[in-house]
Amino acid sequence: MTISHTYPYPPGGPTVIDRLLQGSFDLHHHGFPEISFDCKTRMEDVDEYSIARGAGMTGLVLKSHMFPTVGRAYHLRNLVPGIEIYPSITLNHAVGGMNPIAVESAARQGAKLLFMPTWSAENDIERGGMSKHLRHFIDRAEAKLKPGKGIRLTGSNGKLTAECRECLDVAREFGMVVCSGHVSPAESIALADEAKDFGINEIIFSHPDSNSVGADRQHIRDMCQLGAVCEFCALGCLPAFQRINTKDFIDILGDIGSDKILLTTDYFFEWAPPASETMRMMIGTYLQLGMSEADVRKMVRTNPARLLGLSEDDLDRLSRSQAALASGDGRDALQ
Q1: What is the pLDDT of residue 8?
Q2: Do 223 and 232 contact (CB within 8 A), yes or no?
Q3: Angle, CA of 306, 307 and 309, to the nearest 5°
Q4: C-beta neighbour count of 197 within 10 angstroms
Q5: Residues near 254 by Cβ (< 8 Å), separated by ≥ 6?
Q6: What pLDDT does 335 receive?
Q7: What is the pLDDT of residue 48?
Q8: What is the pLDDT of residue 6?
Q9: Residue 333 confidence (pLDDT)
Q10: pLDDT, position 312
């Protein structure tokens, strides 16, 4: 079964916003189900990915707080051909925490991103981040997710634990992208620093502006000096959260440069629009506020492609394949 959607363009055809969305990536996308069937998304994964394909997006990374997404990604590729669907694994208690066996298993099934703990991170529990949200859906979370019960990447000496380093070794072996998750800024800095021991010179500093992380501007600068790319999520700009003002974001861009920034979506709410639409809204917002097309393109295409190990030739090949498929199933080829 293949489901396709025709993506609606404004009168007169695709605009500059649409053209920037074409070829883009979302390296932090949640699907359904996530956590519980009671935690609704706007639509089924097949429809969401079909809409992203219709918008001309090149690919998305499917993330879950609860389980490796390798099986779901495998089946979605068959259901929605023409868009790259990358699986991932998050090192929460659900997979045994800092578990190199789970990481290797996921990697051997195509997982491209390795997320450090989110709701299981001691930092997240102390700050009342994702762990607090989990309590709305999982009855036992209230009793189990207490300060002192979370996962830390570092020991008392401030260095990464042996288990964390072994997980990094698996990431090195399989070429996985490492993301800092919801650990503390200090742990993130240790991660970015010691990852270099494994030849991993560029990691993703996960949404430093979120309450789950609690980073400040100096932490962002320090991470960038260690080679990290900072992720900023559309979630943080949506009405229910508004944790970062778009003008403040542009100020951060002026501080660290567009080469060090990644735009993603990161949400799973019934009231939120499809991820591709949110990406389009963010692209348009930043252009409206004076950001250059070149800077936007880096944040939604060039930087994520580099992290995934894709060359310009790879991107051109994927674009041609997507356009050919679009023409073949009755949709207009991307311009």
Answers
A1: 79
A2: no
A3: 65
A4: 12
A5: none
A6: 39
A7: 94
A8: 63
A9: 38
A10: 80
Residue given tokens 């004076």 in the structure block: 290
- Give Cβ neighbours of residue 156 (< 8 Å, ≥ 6 apart): none
The answer to whether 162 touches 194, Cβ cutoff 8 Å, is: no
User: Would you state the pLDDT for residue 247?
Assistant: 80
pLDDT recorded at residue 327:
65
Instruction: For the chain, list residues with pLDDT below 50.
Output: 1-4, 329-335
Assess contact for 228 and 215: CB atoms under 8 A: no
Instruction: Give the C-alpha separation, 116 to 123, whole Å.
Output: 12
Q: Which residue, chain included where needed, has tokens 């692209």?
A: 283
Burial class of 292 by CB neighbour count within 10 A (0 to 12, 13 to 18, 19+) = exposed
Taking residue 33's Cβ as centre, other Cβ atoms within 10 Å add up to 17
| Assessment of whether the complete model's pTM goes beyond 0.90 | yes
Q: Which residues pair with 109 in a beta bridge?
A: none
How many C-beta atoms surround the C-beta of residue 8 within 10 A?
A: 8
Q: Is there a contact between 155 and 149 (Cβ–Cβ < 8 Å)?
A: no
Residue from 107, 100, 312, 125 nearest 214 by CA? 125
Phi-psi region of 79 (alpha: psi -120 to 50; beta: other; left: phi over 0): alpha
Determine if residue 56 is left, alpha or beta; phi over 0 gives left, psi from -120 to 50 gives alpha, anything else beta.
Answer: left
Where do we find the tokens 């400040």?
A: 216
Sequence letter at residue 20: L
Given a contact cutoff of 8 angstroms between Cβ atoms, the answer to whether 171 and 118 are in contact is no
Q: Where are the beta strands (DSSP E) in the chain?
A: 25-30, 59-63, 84-86, 88-90, 113-115, 177-179, 204-205, 229-233, 261-264
Q: Nearest Cα to 200, choosing from 225, 169, 223?
A: 169
